[in-house]
Specification:
The chain is mainly beta. 9% of the residues lie in helices and 41% in strands. It contains three helices and 37 strands. The strands form six sheets. Strands 8-9-12-15-18-21-24-27-30-33-36 form an eleven-stranded parallel β-sheet. The longest helix has 18 residues. The relative contact order is 0.08.
Amino acid sequence: MCIRDSSYISPDLQEILNVLSDKNASVINEDLEGNLFIQSFNIFFPFSSCDCENFVKSIFCNRISFTVAPLTWIKGTKSILTFLFFLAFFLKAYAKEVFIEPGPNAQEKLQEAMILMETGYTLVIKSGVYVLEDSLSLDVDKVIVRGEGMDKTILDFHDQKSGAQGLLVTSDAVTLKDFAILNAKGDALKVIGAKGISMIGLKTEWTGGPKSTNGAYGFYPVESENVLIDKCVAIGASDAGIYVGQSKNIIVRNSIAQYNVAGIEIENSTYADVYDNVATNNTGGVLVFDLPNLEIQGGQATRVFNNEIYRNNTENFAPEGAIVGNVPPGTGLLILANDNIEVFENQFWDNGNVNLMIYSYTLGGRTVEDPNYDPFPEQIYIHDNDFRGGGTSPRHPSGTGPAPGIQKKTKRTFKR
């Protein structure tokens, strides 16, 4: 297994060891997704997926690797402590950290550091406000970029002169955590073609409130695999605060999306879990779409559960022509032409138009020109949700007009 984010271990190692010194500490275990965790204490170590033999598991720490016996053999406090001590030693010995502080030439220093990073490096962006005029980009595999908190390390693009986004990532096995991206000219954080991207404890925001001139997307991973968005905040996007498109193996959890047109959107993607989030004060809380004329189609196998989806009654402020421009204010969850969807144990309340809608792309008499596209939602399982209020201020288009959110789709193209 490959360590995706060693900072889960080393910064808090002493606290972990204190917990594990308890005789009742449970053994290291492995869940169905291959995540390594200490079950009884909910101390979580995220690992990216790698080839894994039944009897030997290799753990790669930056540039070095060592082999241990099967995790099921590691029983008892002493074995766990030994394992963690060795892990911490190798991480400290071989990981290299690069520090950037606010001040003159912060733009040049940040971009230079992202260019010169090598596999296994950690870039630490110290607390402060960094006023940036150009986009930043990262194209180095297996690195970490972290700040000192989403309210402490601030990348502010309010005076941005060039670039289509705040930060662009085009590499694999990258972890981004604990900083904020504000007022980007376009998308705040865009990720293209990544195999393994973790966004943890990040915030994207346009601080002037909901406006059509805000950037389209807060979090915007596309054409990617193994996507994790955890403990993030998205505010003010004129399209979607948290968007994952044309991707597979996705987790969006423990996050807050508010005052966006779409709070959380999963589009043309497979195997997505959206859970333990709050979507409020958006135009639409959560959207699960499959749309034609895109390179990747056949969105399916999304689960939406344990979320709070409420009071998504903000007027639609999407710019003219945007796909979400027809989503009616007051929409809780909208499922469009997607298959094999499960929605359960969510809290829906006071979404003025409707708490939950399931739509075919063909509603309103629309025709489908894409021969590879299936416009009908199938195998939708809705159960064990709590619905309160909602539907008291219908904004749904009537008659033969287009169904919400299904204007003609412009094909998205992405370049590295």
